[in-house]
Amino acid sequence: MKRIDDRPRHAQIAADLRAKILSGDITGTLPTFKLLKDLYNTSTNTAQRAVALLKAEGFVEGQQGKALIIRSDRIRITDAASQLQPPADTITYQVLHIGQERPPTDAAAKLGLAENQTALLRKRLMLRDDDPVEIEWSYYPESVVTGTALDRPPHQIQRDLATAPTALAALGWQQHGLIDEIQVREPTTEELQTLELPDEIPVMRTLRTITDAEGTVLEVTVMITSGHLYGVRYHQTLTPQEPA
User: Fold this and answer.
1) Residue 93: in which H helix or E strand, if any?
2) What pTM, to 2 d.p., does this model score?
3) pLDDT in tens, the chain (244 residues)
4) Which of 41, 178, 211, 219 has the largest CB neighbor count within 10 A?
5) Which SS3 state, helix, strand or coil, does residue 238 take?
6) What is the distance between the alpha carbons of residues 224 and 96, in angstroms, rounded to a whole number?
7) CA 87, CA 183: separation in Å to the nearest integer?
8) How far apart are CA 58 and CA 9, in angstroms?
9) b or e along 25-58 (b: 16 or more beta carbons within 10 Å of the residue's beta carbon)?
């Protein structure tokens, strides 16, 4: 049976406009309420409610009665990499917690942890222009932590590694392999509140596994990213196939 879109009409319109903004089909300024009313065969009030959602998400900005400017830079597409290397003046980090924790089941499996075994957790909040955009839970096995700057009291780790893109890079580990497993879902209450998400916005959950040249797991990170602020670009070289 074909799925019926039973979302409120203003949410349907906002979703369509959001898709057109992200694809570049609408640029510059948003159509007027009169045009939106005609385009979507709806009332002015419904068109206004749809635009209000986009304003709350930061996709459009401006005052009532004037042209609403579309923010084409609202979503940032980043290359998948072992560490984000954005301009230092736009990205900052806050260390939220450091300590021994039991990772989520999928992360624990990547680390090869026995039942009830813990790993060192380094939880951080990433901000762009002071807006929260991503929560990171990075887990390190004992073999990585022992004898390093991570093998110290939490307050010392926070002071020394708070601004490092990754603890592995700061500690001199040679990162070789990276695997990202990505899901999109509704946010939990903690995620919604920490990332200050508008209504109807999903999050992107990335389970990132980083290994050395021998394939040993050095770090497993769970990243929860605001769905309306970030996207990921992957590059892959394709090997030419010989004709059959």
Assistant:
1) strand 91-101
2) 0.79
3) 777 888 899 999 998 998 888 888 888 899 999 999 999 999 999 999 999 999 888 888 887 667 888 876 667 777 766 554 544 567 888 888 888 999 999 999 999 999 989 999 989 898 888 889 999 999 999 888 877 777 676 666 655 555 455 677 777 778 888 899 999 999 999 999 999 988 778 899 999 999 988 899 999 999 999 888 878 887 778 777 776 6
4) 219
5) coil
6) 14
7) 27
8) 20
9) ebeeebbebeebbeebebeeebbebbbebbbbbe
Instruction: Give burial (CB, 10 Å; 0-12/13-18/19+) of 17.
Output: buried
Q: Enter the tokens of residue 226.
A: 């605001």
Question: Amino acid letter at 177?
Answer: G
CA distance 212 to 178: 9
